[in-house]
Amino acid sequence: MTPANPGVQRIRAAFARAQAENRAAFIPYMTGGYPDPARFLAVCDQLLRRADLLEIGIPYSDPLGDGPTIQRAGEQALNAGTSTRGTLDLVRRVRQTTQTPIVVMTYVNPIYAVGPDAFMRLCVESGVDGLILPDLPPDQDLEIADLAAAHGLAVTFLIAPTSTPSRVELVAQACTGFLYAASVAGVTGARESAALGEVPAMLALARQHARTPVAVGFGVKDAATATAVAEVADGVVVGSAFIDAIEGGHDLAPLVDLISDGCRRA
């Protein structure tokens, strides 16, 4: 897991460009194949207008870390016929239109269903730069992370305000793309409050050990929450707010611009 990996280099460069412009990197998330495969590509086009990195989630039937909004999106995508291989094929089509780094969020079971080595090969062939692995403790199964590194992919693990100092140290040192810090314990989803609570202290601890940028997600829904996170983090991850907008029949472009502008620091 060295910075020489192509995915690592592209992800680090994206964060560096944002930092040079005095802003946090804007990292929108979208469930693969949502709301259906055809419209998914149009949604990605809207997100990529402003994205520094694009996170695409592989829909999964048992997404324990996802809140109700992303769960609904996953169910709809699965019902529309989206599979793990289908998601990666959609990523390949997105990659044909952009040089923006793409990271895939997946639980471990879909990787094993395809086969770890075959999954990594598909990721590389599709133009994926890195993986976000929310249910893989880096001290319990190194096969996935090692395979990702061998194929030139960055890996990202998660911490939360409930993570112990030893867990934060372990996870921070294992990340090669960026470190994903959840703003709250629990599942994903937009929340009413922009208060950061324990996030600054968590990030201060993480930065003592991290060799990568640190991005914060879970709860960012508008310019105010994006600005609050951008003041303390290197990246701002936003997902449920965009899915809520699609569910409500709204044009994504204004919300994308609003949240992206919110990532600028004072």
TrEMBL record:
Keywords assigned: Amino-acid biosynthesis, Aromatic amino acid biosynthesis, Lyase, Tryptophan biosynthesis
Pathway(s) per entry: Amino-acid biosynthesis; L-tryptophan biosynthesis; L-tryptophan from chorismate: step 5/5
Catalytic activity: (1S,2R)-1-C-(indol-3-yl)glycerol 3-phosphate + L-serine = D-glyceraldehyde 3-phosphate + L-tryptophan + H2O
Enzyme class: lyase
Alphabetical list of Gene3D superfamilies matching this protein: Aldolase class I
Alphabetized PROSITE patterns for the sequence: TRP_SYNTHASE_ALPHA
Pfam family, one: Trp_syntA
One GO MF term attached to the UniProt entry: tryptophan synthase activity
InterPro entries found in the cross-reference section: Aldolase_TIM, RibuloseP-bd_barrel, Trp_synthase_alpha_AS, Trp_synthase_suA
Assigned EC number: 4.2.1.20
Annotated catalytic residues: 55 (proton acceptor), 66 (proton acceptor)
Endpoints of the signal sequence: none
Function according to Swiss-Prot or TrEMBL: The alpha subunit is responsible for the aldol cleavage of indoleglycerol phosphate to indole and glyceraldehyde 3-phosphate.
UniProt cross-references to PANTHER family, sorted A to Z: TRYPTOPHAN SYNTHASE ALPHA CHAIN, CHLOROPLASTIC, TRYPTOPHAN SYNTHASE, ALPHA CHAIN
Subunit structure comment from the entry: Tetramer of two alpha and two beta chains.
Family statement drawn from the similarity comment of this UniProt entry: Belongs to the TrpA family.
NCBIfam families: trpA
Protein name: Tryptophan synthase alpha chain
